Amino acid sequence: MNINASLFVQMAVFFFGAWVTMKYIWPPLIRAIEERQKKIDEGLAAADKGEMALAEAQKEGQAIKAEARAQALAIMNDGEKRGQAIVEEAKAQAQVEADRIIEAAKAEVAQEAERLREQLREEVARLAVAGAEQILRREVDTKVHAQMLEQLKAKL
């Protein structure tokens, strides 16, 4: 066989193989590569969106956290104020109760003092009658002197 004929046949087979490859094999490969490239681009875009969403979510989370801290601080301050108000109210109620108890005790002491004065008057009157009886050494009429004792008690 001749080298020229062999070269022409090889060239014809090469061009036929290249034409078949370009017509039937190359287009599906290009489509597959383009689809893959499109998927990669979509994935990158989604990743960028995800990063942006993550950054935004972190900002929102920090804002929510700051707001929650502020609310917690406000609640604590309100609780402290309410606690102080309750303590002040309890102090006021305790003072009112203490004043009431002191007034009741003063009234009771006054009544007791009056009762003791009355007993003391009666005792002084009895002692005066007993002393007068011993001085006079005679029996005293109790009814007559009862009036005198009442008058004496009134003066004392």
UniProtKB/TrEMBL annotation:
CDD domains on file: ATP-synt_Fo_b (cd06503)
Please give the Gene3D superfamilies that the UniProt record associates with this protein.
F1F0 ATP synthase subunit B, membrane domain
Q: Does the keyword DNA repair apply?
A: no
- Classification via InterPro entries: ATP_synth_B-like_membr_sf (IPR028987), ATP_synth_b/b'su_bac/chlpt (IPR002146), ATP_synth_F0_bsu_bac (IPR005864), ATP_synthase_B_chain (IPR050059)
What does the protein in this record do?
Component of the F(0) channel, it forms part of the peripheral stalk, linking F(1) to F(0). The b'-subunit is a diverged and duplicated form of b found in plants and photosynthetic bacteria.
Spell out the subunit comment: F-type ATPases have 2 components, F(1) - the catalytic core - and F(0) - the membrane proton channel. F(1) has five subunits: alpha(3), beta(3), gamma(1), delta(1), epsilon(1). F(0) has four main subunits: a(1), b(2) and c(10-14). The alpha and beta chains form an alternating ring which encloses part of the gamma chain. F(1) is attached to F(0) by a central stalk formed by the gamma and epsilon chains, while a peripheral stalk is formed by the delta and b chains. F-type ATPases have 2 components, F(1) - the catalytic core - and F(0) - the membrane proton channel. F(1) has five subunits: alpha(3), beta(3), gamma(1), delta(1), epsilon(1). F(0) has three main subunits: a(1), b(2) and c(10-14). The alpha and beta chains form an alternating ring which encloses part of the gamma chain. F(1) is attached to F(0) by a central stalk formed by the gamma and epsilon chains, while a peripheral stalk is formed by the delta and b chains.
The name of this protein is ATP synthase subunit b
Q: Which gene holds the coding sequence for this protein?
A: atpF
